[in-house]
Design brief:
It is a single chain. The protein has ten helices and 13 strands. It is an alpha/beta fold and 337 residues long. Helix 1 (4-15) packs antiparallel against helix 10.
């Protein structure tokens, strides 16, 4: 049964994203797509031959989170590392085309800009090739990042997003500095973690692991996506070590779960045609952070996060979600409050 008042309330929250100031920190990369057609198998090996038709590239990783933030009408500042290489130049060009300032990207002479090359044919991904260096940042690079970050945090953005892809840019020391300063200035923090620094995000506002990540970080905990009690236990185990305010656990086809100790709820994923899951986590991170900045209540934040991930999966490749997508989604989904 549709609840138009509920849908309108959610849409008003999305509309309030406009003008919010967001600082995104993390592993930037270039998402490259090679599109073609397959009509034969190679005589050299049992693999398809792709007749290349076109190439596309767009900001990826933390840069895609920034893209999603901007697409929802907010102001975004992006801070990360890139190499002094052709991929870094292409990433800056892609950011400029998307009207995102790349001034916060610190150049490293010692590492390559991460590039994910996806080979696409007949509407699906055949292969992905990654070019990257994922070793930790040097002390000098950390200090350059911090010099940029402290200026940005002091300006008091509405929310800070840590987008961690385990590529080495986020270190325990840098994370601790940012969280401490954000806490001092009462700036909320949202984390999309990976395993290397999983336990470094002590004291953040909202911690957003997916099911695979929380299972890997809590071996033996037996986190089950369909059991609220199991998910509650997962949050408690996280909270014992992180002392954070809340957990948003994304469950893929199982929906999403949010807990802050007093509010605890799991909602199912909405039924839809899934085309490609690439970039859905980035979209959820952007939406969650903006909902937090907009002071949405926990139930509405959970609904919007869950909906945003599903909307992102309706597109081939990494695709930023816009307010128009939410408007369409909210007009077609059922909301019972």
């Amino acid at each position: 049964m549709k609840d138009p008042d509920h849908a309108q309330r959610l849409l008003s929250i999305v509309d309030s994203f406009v003008g919010k100031r967001v600082l995104v920190l993390g592993d930037v990369m270039l998402d490259e797509y090679l599109y073609g057609e397959v009509d034969r198998v190679s005589p050299e090996a049992p693999v398809p031959v792709v007749a290349l038709q076109r190439r596309e590239a767009q900001p990826g990783g933390a840069a895609n989170v920034a893209l999603n933030v901007a697409a929802l009408g907010a102001q975004v500042e992006l801070v990360g590392l890139c190499g002094r290489d052709e991929t870094g130049v292409r990433l800056r060009e892609a950011l400029q085309l998307s009207r995102i300032d790349g001034a916060g990207l610190i150049e490293s002479a010692d590492r390559r800009t991460t590039r994910k090359t996806r080979i696409m044919a007949q509407g699906q991904q055949l292969l992905r090739v990654d070019t990257e260096d994922d070793y930790p940042t040097t002390g000098v690079e950390v200090e350059h990042l911090w010099e940029r970050l402290i200026r940005s945090i002091t300006a008091r953005p509405d929310v800070i997003i840590f987008q961690d892809y385990d590529k080495g840019v986020l270190s325990a020391d840098l994370i601790a500095r940012v969280v401490a300063e954000a806490t001092r200035l009462a700036v909320p923090t949202v984390v999309d973690p990976k395993l290397r620094n999983f336990w470094s995000y002590r004291g953040v506002s909202l911690f957003k692991p997916n099911l695979k990540e929380i299972r890997a970080a809590l071996p033996g905990a037996d986190i089950l996506p369909g059991e609220v009690g199991s998910l509650q236990r997962g949050h408690r185990l996280l909270s014992e070590r992180l002392q954070h305010a809340g957990s948003l656990i994304t469950l893929g086809a199982g929906g999403a779960f949010l807990s802050n100790g007093t509010f605890e709820r799991r909602i199912p994923a909405h039924r839809r045609r899934i085309v490609d899951v690439c970039g859905a986590g980035d979209t959820v991170a952007a939406t969650t952070a903006l909902a937090l900045a907009a002071a949405a209540d926990h139930a509405d934040l959970l609904e919007l996060a869950n909906l945003s991930g599903g909307l992102a999966c309706e597109y081939v490749g990494v695709h930023p979600i816009r307010r128009e997508d939410f408007r369409r989604g909210l007009a077609t989904e059922a909301y019972g409050g």
